[in-house]
């Protein structure tokens, strides 16, 4: 899209979005942070939609384009000018004509560059803000002065909470725990740290016929406990979004039991530690949506904890946008892979040092491979994968690691439903 056209489109759809908010006055939940925003947004939607008319951001619509489009209820028209004209017309009709509009909006609010959140937060005025985890080396740190600048950018949304609003914040990250919401807001903490208002515990991997099939855990709140079991995913990284979603639900008047029941029926989005049947009786763990040091660490911890009679193969692509932290963080992940996997395959220029550090940490050299791109890795995986192998696949978006998963799937004809980035625009890239 031409830069001038983009500016014009952003201006017009933002103007319409503001008018729609003034007219319909929906309640707003804003989700920000560095890890798990989309999963949290989807989990919050799963809980609130059991009691209210709710709309959520589509996929990762978390930018100056995506958020107005969510408010308008329109798709991304990409480079189609007629699609943008249609979106503007639909927004105008929503303003001029009576309409049955959602009573709640669940908006994901992201920041790739300094100032991104401030531009959006000035006009959405949420009743509830969820701040997910912000690790010591957050995603997109390359574009900020330092990690603390990322924290400050994310925290701006707290300043816009409406009087009587609720700030729901991770209690397991020092950076988030330090943040203070406005004095007129209620603060609720979630996590696995003793003292959190919504406390997770008893986490376990579920198995069916000897293969991982899901996760189970317990949510504690004010003396009450509710179990949650979710099929089709593994990893603690899912439990944080569920805890946050339970906190949102309870703060909006739902019971803990009803929130837990909604979460047990929830299907997390593709590319986030999803369990997919692999060729020849193997299991794929598809974590290809994106990558960052904290997310890669937790994915490897999950792989370490899974029980299997076969090999554990970690296929890891570059982690991008880490700036000066890049080499150190890739080396650290390689060291962790040595104690989590029996085999490590790396994909991309930056990831190659993972193999070197894994070897230095004790992983057998013949079990370490490097590939220049995801297609090459996928072709090799399809040739060697066998019964009871558990294969973790992860990397940053532009590494296109979903291509590896596609090659290893038992049913590749289901890729449109199960994998990330299957839209036409992505396939052109």
Automatic annotation (TrEMBL):
Domain named Mur ligase central: which ranges?
31-74, 103-248
> Cross-referenced InterPro entries, in alphabetical order?
Mur-like_cat_sf, Mur_ligase_C, Mur_ligase_C_dom_sf, Mur_ligase_cen, MurCDEF_CellWall_CoF430Synth
- Pfam families given in the database record: Mur_ligase_C, Mur_ligase_M
The record's section on Gene3D superfamilies has:
Mur ligase, C-terminal domain, Mur-like, catalytic domain
Q: Does the record bear Ligase in its keywords?
A: yes
Which keywords fit this entry according to its UniProt record? ATP-binding, Ligase, Nucleotide-binding
Q: What GO molecular function terms would the record report?
A: acid-amino acid ligase activity; ATP binding
Task: State what protein this is by name.
Answer: UDP-N-acetylmuramoyl-tripeptide--D-alanyl-D-alanine ligase
UniProt organism field: Candidatus Kaiserbacteria bacterium RIFCSPHIGHO2_01_FULL_49_13
């Amino acid at each position: 899209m031409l830069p001038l056209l983009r500016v014009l489109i952003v201006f017009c759809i933002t103007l319409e979005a503001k008018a729609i908010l003034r007219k319909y006055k929906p309640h707003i939940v804003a989700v920000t942070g560095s890890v798990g925003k989309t999963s949290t947004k989807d989990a919050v939607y799963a809980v609130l939609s059991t009691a209210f008319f709710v709309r959520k951001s589509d996929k990762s619509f978390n930018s100056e384009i995506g958020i107005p489009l969510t408010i308008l209820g329109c798709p991304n028209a990409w480079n189609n000018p007629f699609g943008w004209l249609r979106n503007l017309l639909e927004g105008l009709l929503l303003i001029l004509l009576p309409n049955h509009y959602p009573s709640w909006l669940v908006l994901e609010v992201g920041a790739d560059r300094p100032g991104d959140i401030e531009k959006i937060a000035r006009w959405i005025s949420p009743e509830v803000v969820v701040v997910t985890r912000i690790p010591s080396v957050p995603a997109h740190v390359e574009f900020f002065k330092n990690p603390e600048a990322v924290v400050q950018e994310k925290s701006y949304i707290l300043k816009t909470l409406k009087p009587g609003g609720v700030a729901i914040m991770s209690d397991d990250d020092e950076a988030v725990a330090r943040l203070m919401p406005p004095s007129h807001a209620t603060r609720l903490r979630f996590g696995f740290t003793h003292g959190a208002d919504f406390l997770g515990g008893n986490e376990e991997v579920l198995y069916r016929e000897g293969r991982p099939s899901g996760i189970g855990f317990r949510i504690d709140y004010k003396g009450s406990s509710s179990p949650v079991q979710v099929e089709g995913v593994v990893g603690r990284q899912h439990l944080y979004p569920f805890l946050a979603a339970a906190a949102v639900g309870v703060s909006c008047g739902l019971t803990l039991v009803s929130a837990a029941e909604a979460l047990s029926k929830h299907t997390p989005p593709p590319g986030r530690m999803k369990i997919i049947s692999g060729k020849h009786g193997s299991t794929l763990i598809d974590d290809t949506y994106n990558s960052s040091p904290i997310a890669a660490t937790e994915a490897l911890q999950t792989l370490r904890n899974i029980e299997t009679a076969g090999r554990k193969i970690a296929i890891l692509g570059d982690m991008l946008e880490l700036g000066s932290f890049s080499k150190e963080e890739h080396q650290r992940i390689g060291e962790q892979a040595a104690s989590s996997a029996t085999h490590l395959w790396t994909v991309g220029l930056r990831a190659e040092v993972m193999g070197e550090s894994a070897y230095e940490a004790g992983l057998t050299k013949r079990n370490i491979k490097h590939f220049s791109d995801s297609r090459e890795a996928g072709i090799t995986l399809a040739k060697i994968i066998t019964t009871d192998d558990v294969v973790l696949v992860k990397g940053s978006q532009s590494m296109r690691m979903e291509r590896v998963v596609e090659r290893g799937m038992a049913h590749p004809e289901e890729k449109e439903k199960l994998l990330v980035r299957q839209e036409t625009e992505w396939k052109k890239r």
